[in-house]
Amino acid sequence: NTKFSNNQTRLKNYNGAIYYQAGIDKTAIGSLNITNSIFDNNQGAIGINSGPFGQFAGEITNSTFYDNGEIPILKTNSTALADSTGYSRLHIRNSIIWETITPFYPLLVGGNFENTNLFGYQLSDNLIGPTFDPSIPGAGDSLIINNIIGKNPLFKSEDNLNILSCSPAINQGSSRWLENQNIELDFEGNP
């Protein structure tokens, strides 16, 4: 239950709230687990750099992303990650990703900006705001289960990211992602 709001970085126009950087050797192993969090008005929400041979696995559950700049979520991929020792994976589930600035393709960046892809992303039971572009490499493998694409989540306001009772996100997530998380209450303490 954490709120990341109005964070900036001096380095780039992304990675403002959370940035993970692994080492450059094959022994670098990292993970990131985020639950019941809000990311809003950051200069990028999450940046993950697993290095050319590192291993990274992350999970984001029951979180909301709103108005986080040009590149809200960045996860590196490289040709070296194709071998059996290196990988970079991020599973986003039961979340709302509603970014007002960007079209879908830079919303979740994998690889570099000239050759972006969605390999290594898993998206399950989310509401993802912008129109999805099926031509992005890896997109078919990324959109796994029950995602709502392109529908406004109907927040109460820009300053209040609770959703209205008529939101298309109501009762659309899955409790299976909460079973081992010890989550009984939402961000505001409601069951």
Structure description:
With 191 residues, the protein is mostly beta strands. 4% of the residues lie in helices and 31% in strands. It has two helices and 15 strands. The strands form three sheets. A six-stranded parallel beta sheet has the order 1-4-7-10-13-15, with no helix packed on it. Strands 3-6-9-12-14 form a five-stranded parallel beta sheet. Strands 2-5-8-11 form a four-stranded parallel beta sheet. The longest helix is centred in the middle third of the chain and has 4 residues. The protein is globular.
Number of beta strands: 15
Largest sheet: 6 strands, parallel
- Summed over residues and divided by their number, the pLDDT gives a mean of 78
Please compute the radius of gyration using only Cα atoms. Answer: 16 Å
Which geometry do the CA atoms define?
A: globular
Structure described in brief:
The protein is mainly β and 191 residues long.
List keywords for this structure.
191 residues; six-stranded parallel beta sheet; 2 helices; mainly beta
What is the fold's blueprint, element by element?
Elements: E1 2-5, E2 18-21, E3 29-35, E4 37-40, E5 46-49, E6 55-61, E7 64-66, E8 73-75, E9 87-93, E10 96-98, H1 104-107, E11 108-110, E12 121-124, E13 127-128, H2 139-142, E14 143-145, E15 148-149
Parallel strand pairs: 1-4, 2-5, 3-6, 4-7, 5-8, 6-9, 7-10, 8-11, 9-12, 10-13, 12-14, 13-15
